Amino acid sequence: MTEAPLTDIAAVIRSKNAGPYELTLDIMFKDEKHYRFLKQIDYFTRELFAGLYGISVENILKVVYFDPASAVKCTLVRSLVSGSIGDSDVYGAQQHAPLLFLKVPVAD
């Protein structure tokens, strides 16, 4: 199976707060073909995100495929409450970096 960097097939890869205790990761694909293929093989799982972020699967709250936008959304528990002492990213906007190095299978 052929692989490609996620950055080649995604138009948007971002992170943001989903409240002070949670973080949301968004992946929006450039075209429906790649999105549908990855959805069909159930590529984006709680286990995948837990591995990428080095956290337990229980801290991945949900993974949602959103067909109208050819997008995948993952919500996870923040390691620190937003704005608390030690938090280095109060807006959660710099937490998508592990996704930037991900290689994903692509349809042949």
Structure description:
With 108 residues, this protein is of the alpha+beta class. It has a domain of 73 residues: Alpha-Beta Plaits (2-Layer Sandwich). The protein is built from four helices and six strands, in the order E-H-E-E-H-H-E-E-H-E. The strands form two sheets. It has a four-stranded antiparallel sheet. Strand 4 and strand 5 form a beta hairpin. The longest helix is centred in the middle third of the chain and has 9 residues. The protein starts with a strand and ends with a strand.
What is the element layout, followed by pairings?
Layout: E1 3-5, H1 6-9, E2 10-17, E3 22-29, H2 32-40, H3 46-53, E4 60-66, E5 71-77, H4 97-100, E6 103-105
Antiparallel strand pairs: 1-6, 2-3, 3-5, 4-5
Level-1 CATH class name of the domain at 7-79:
Alpha Beta
CATH architecture of the domain at 7-79: 2-Layer Sandwich
> Which fold name fills CATH's third level, the topology of the domain at 7-79?
Alpha-Beta Plaits
Mean pLDDT across all amino acids: 96
Main sheet summary: 4 strands, antiparallel
Order of helices and strands: EHEEHHEEHE
| Cα distance spanning the termini | 7 Å
- How helical, in percent, are the residues? 10-25%
